[in-house]
Amino acid sequence: MSVTLDQNCPVIRSRQNSHFKAWLQTGRKGPFEDVFICEGLRFAEAALQSGLIPRAFILAESLLVQPERLDRLTAIMPEQTPVFVLADDLLAALSDTRHSQGCLLLLPKQFQPALSAQQQAMSPRQQRWLVLDRLQDPGNVGTLIRTAAAFAFSGVLFMNGTASPYESKALRASMGAIFRIPLTFFRTPADCVAFLKERQALLYAADLNGTPSRRLSWQLPAALVIGNEGNGVCREFLQLADCCVRIPQVPEIESLNAAAAGAILCYELCGDISFK
Length: 276
Known about the structure:
Elements: E1 11-12, H1 18-25, E2 35-39, H2 41-49, E3 56-60, H3 71-76, E4 83-86, H4 88-94, E5 103-108, H5 117-121, E6 128-133, H6 138-150, E7 155-159, H7 168-174, E8 183-186, H8 189-198, E9 202-212, E10 222-227, H9 235-240, E11 243-246, H10 258-269
């Protein structure tokens, strides 16, 4: 398994090139799109180590002069991966960062994540899920995906209206954790709760009027709902929840943001489960 870079391979220089025009639209077609762009050497390596097979490997022309920078990546790249070289200005147009590393992967949204040993060994009675209810900030979404993966959650459940985990800001915030945990998408809270009830999971909803988290006797299997940054968890989830929970804090300070609150409650939900 490896890809060899040819310094004499053709370079795409025209903005009218059909491949370039298609890549430029990636991320603008909403949930109906089946691919996303992963940018940077570190994230590309994380994707490949998780077993993903890229639809395309896109790199800047300037990298052909110093191919050793890509050695670790090309060594684990599936040999059937199509390789495209773009003029640096064209690749910069695809990049979402100020200083691009000149390396992009076009990846399928449907993939099997590489689960940690602790996730694989988890019994049904230990399962836990994180539900994201209409979160708008992709940075919060990515951070919470990373949090759920760090605490060996069984998956992250996305409600309609939540920022896409495939947006560049969410991908960067996840630090590659998106490739390490299953993501499932639901249209309505009722659909999500039905999924959880089939797995006999209790539903905890983060709410400012809930029970202080340290007074709870957390039980598994369970799911934790984190709501919209401005409006919190929707009414339907609050009505369907087995328990509402809050994080006690001094009243003079605004409530914690969604990512910080989610991280604390995810950790508390784990109870006495040990991590290395």
